[in-house]
Amino acid sequence: MRRKILDKVRDTIERYGLIAKGDLVLVGVSGGPDSVCLLYLLKALSKSLGFSLEIAHLDHMLRKDSPQDTEFVRSLAVKLAIPATIGRIDIKKSAAKGSLEEIARNKRLEFFIRTAKDVGAKKIALAHNLDDQAETVLMRILRGTGLYGLSGILPKRNLYGFEVIRPLIRVQRREIEDFLSRKKVRACLDQTNKNEIFFRNKIRNKLIPLLEKEYNPSIKNTLSNMAETSALDYDYLNQLALRKIKGTRGKIRLSSFLRFHSALQRLILRLTISHLQGSTRRISFAHIKEIEDLILKRPVNSIVDLPKGISVAKKVKSIIFYRR
Length: 324
Description:
Layout: H1 2-16, E1 24-28, H2 33-49, E2 52-59, H3 66-80, E3 84-88, H4 91-94, H5 100-119, E4 123-125, H6 130-143, H7 147-150, E5 156-159, E6 162-165, H8 173-183, H9 199-214, H10 219-245, E7 251-253, H11 254-257, H12 262-277, H13 285-296, E8 303-306, E9 310-314, E10 318-323
Parallel strand pairs: 1-2, 1-4, 2-3, 4-6
Antiparallel strand pairs: 5-6, 7-10, 8-9, 9-10
């Protein structure tokens, strides 16, 4: 199994072009099994593929024993002779007005990007695996999603001038556990992963076992395969939509727009919003339907207000997206 998982990760790196010769790769290491496994596998491949590694670890201060995780990562960095950058932030203070999970994720990403800049790395490797992929797709289906949401966790994503890569995205959690067991490598265990206050943990601990037992024993692979197919379809549509909005600067001519297929129209709307506010987070299906209603049924000079201070105004020959 050890050789199999190494080959699988090598194949993922080569298939998606995740790492090139000469790259410096910053690896996000929490100290948990997934990130520790990723670090060992990348270390094993670094010489033959010609890249080097740095470690980044952020203590969120959410648990009393989190300093033990930090010391574990420090020791691991010394053991593997990999430079490490350690950060610390009180997430609870930052999360007073929002989702603890979302703010922790954003702060962690900010730390990784800042560290990557400091050390000169263009690649940030994260330890999302096939089980994470399946959980993410199910979460998005239950909340409501489109083609992009069904794409799940992409193997490679450009973010603020950096490439976020997931070399473990085709590896199951049981393979990770087996690898660490065979290598006799210890990892830290986060007990909050069992707390079913968090939506993902309910999916992981209750829904997926039910689906495996009652409906499809290979549900994780099925969802992962669906995500990969959806990602390819989305990428094709996304390239078309990007060409259509090039140079529009938030102003879409209705005569051209209305000739497009509705799938392309909706993606153009989402991309235009994303270019203005940096993402489509909090933009729901209802918002897109309201913009469509604005275009097709409402009078000229009507306005639709969207989250995060974005508005859309209907003019005689166009719709205009702007910050209010």
